[in-house]
């Protein structure tokens, strides 16, 4: 789908002038082979203080991803939660040691899994190996950067729409009571913040939609706990 959309945009924009044309000059100028730039980590107390609380968001995000995959595969993956959290931590430390970004599970992969119905971990190992090899080609990186915004937008709508639908499936299967305002408000606010990608800037650090949705859901759910209706099963 992404490739067909890219070709369609190329024909309409570059061929018929119906949009901003794709610029391939960066691809032509890029080398076929290049080494990544490694950077030693630098420890800063203000930066650590600002970033460290984000781990709460990552834990919640990772937990949600595993729950979603469990719903898609029909398996209980709760016993593997600890392994997943440790994997994220080790990957982040390894990436940070060479100047890379923090690592976590990616919701985009869940969307692809939902479409293809392929859940084999071997696929991700092969994909990782291919991604590493392509990472040594600046020309491939320049080609990826030529993907038009509308194409990326279309892909994002499909992928994140599937993720939202999977979340709804989890709520249905777990019989979440949406007649209770506490649940209804929490879910509604989280969906709007996440799907709308509401960003929050704090001291130069940008918290994207996943972060604001996670914090909003946790804060609202506990803040509204005092107003939880009485147990209807009681006389």
Key features?
single chain, 235 residues, mainly alpha, two-stranded antiparallel ribbon
Major sheet:
2 strands, antiparallel
| Neighbour order of strands in the largest sheet | 1-2
Overall helicity = 55-70%
* Rg value: 21 Å
The residue ranges in which pLDDT falls below 50 over 5 or more consecutive positions are: none
Bulk shape: globular
Straight-line distance between termini: 56 Å
Structural class: mainly alpha
Our estimate of the beta-strand percent is under 5%
SSE arrangement, N to C? HHHHHHHHHHEEH
Q: How would you sum up this structure, described in words?
A:
The chain is mainly alpha-helical. Helix content is 63%, strand content 3%. A two-stranded antiparallel ribbon has the order 1-2. A hairpin with a 2-residue loop joins strand 1 and strand 2 (205-207). Helix 4 crosses helix 11 (209-223) and helix 6 crosses helix 9 (149-173). It is globular and about 60 Å long. The N and C termini lie far apart (56 Å). The model has no long low-confidence stretch (mean pLDDT 81).
Give a summary of the structure in a few sentences.
It is built from eleven helices and two strands.
Topology, element by element:
Blueprint: H1 2-15, H2 25-29, H3 45-51, H4 54-73, H5 81-97, H6 107-116, H7 121-134, H8 138-144, H9 149-173, H10 181-195, E1 200-202, E2 205-207, H11 209-223
Antiparallel strand pairs: 1-2
Helix pairs in contact: 1-9, 4-9, 4-11, 6-9, 10-11
